[in-house]
Design a protein that fits this description.
210 residues, alpha+beta, 3-stranded antiparallel β-sheet, two-stranded antiparallel sheet, 7 helices, 7 strands, 38% helix, globular
C-alpha cells in the first residue's frame, strides 16, 4: 500500500502529476506479471493506493540475500517473467521508464519458499508506475546511449518527465537487469557521468563483481 500525504499531493504539482499518472495507468492494466491495484482510498488527510499483497521484497533485496551468483535457470526465469509484463505494456502503448531491480517485486506462493528464497516458485511482478507514460507516436529518444546525452546529462532519468521516449529505454534497462543478475555487477560503472559516457561508446563493461 502506498500512502500519499494529501496536503503535499495537492500543493505540489510535480507530486500530483506523478501520482495521478500512476493511478491512471494502474486503472487500465491487469497482468500476472504486474502488481495489481486493488483500490484507491481518498481520506481527509491521506490517499491510499492499495495493491495486491506480496511477501518477497524486490529483486535488489533478493540479490543481497543470495551471496552466490545466480544460476542461468533462475536468471532466465526472472527475465522471462519481467519480459512478459513488458510485452503486455508494449501492447498497451505504455512505457514504464523506470525498470530496475527495486521496481521488480516477488511474491512467494508459500512460506517455505519465501524462507528458502525459492524464486522459481515465486511470482515476479513489475511495480511503481509513477514515471510511466503512454507512448507518443513519432516522438523518439535521441540516438545516443540511453544513460547520457551529448552534454553528458543523464537522460535515463525519470525526472525528465517530458523527454520523449520509445521502447528502447525499456530494452536498455532490461539489459542492465539481466547483466546484474547474471554477472553480479552493472555493466558500466563510474562516479563520473563523462566516464560512463565514454565506457558505453567504447563497450568497456565489467565482467565480474570486482
Amino acid at each position: 500500500t502506498k500512502v500519499i500525504n494529501k496536503e503535499k499531493y495537492m500543493n505540489n504539482p510535480k507530486v500530483k502529476k506523478y501520482i495521478d499518472n500512476e493511478i491512471s495507468i494502474l486503472n487500465e492494466i491487469s497482468h500476472p506479471n504486474i502488481l495489481k491495484q486493488i483500490e484507491i482510498k481518498d481520506l481527509p488527510t491521506n490517499i491510499y493506493i492499495i495493491t495486491e499483497y506480496y511477501n518477497g521484497g524486490n529483486l535488489s533485496d533478493y540479490l543481497e540475500k543470495n551471496k552466490e551468483p545466480l544460476s542461468e535457470e533462475i536468471v532466465q526465469y526472472i527475465m522471462r517473467e519481467i519480459i512478459n509484463g513488458i510485452k503486455y505494456l508494449y501492447d498497451k502503448s505504455i512505457i514504464h521508464r523506470d525498470i530496475k531491480l527495486e521496481n521488480i517485486i516477488i511474491n512467494y506462493k508459500n512460506e517455505n519458499d519465501r524462507i528458502n528464497n525459492n524464486i522459481l516458485r515465486g511470482e515476479i511482478k513489475i511495480s511503481n508506475f509513477k514515471f510511466g507514460i503512454k507512448k507518443i507516436e513519432d516522438k523518439f529518444i535521441k540516438k545516443n546511449p540511453p544513460d547520457v546525452d551529448k552534454k553528458n546529462k543523464l537522460i535515463n532519468n525519470p525526472e525528465y518527465i517530458d523527454y520523449k521516449y520509445e521502447e528502447k529505454i525499456e530494452i536498455w534497462n532490461l539489459g542492465k537487469i539481466y547483466y546484474k543478475l547474471l554477472i553480479g555487477n552493472i555493466p558500466f560503472n563510474s562516479n563520473f557521468i563523462k566516464a560512463i559516457f565514454e565506457k558505453i561508446y567504447k563497450g568497456d563493461y565489467l565482467l565480474s563483481k570486482e
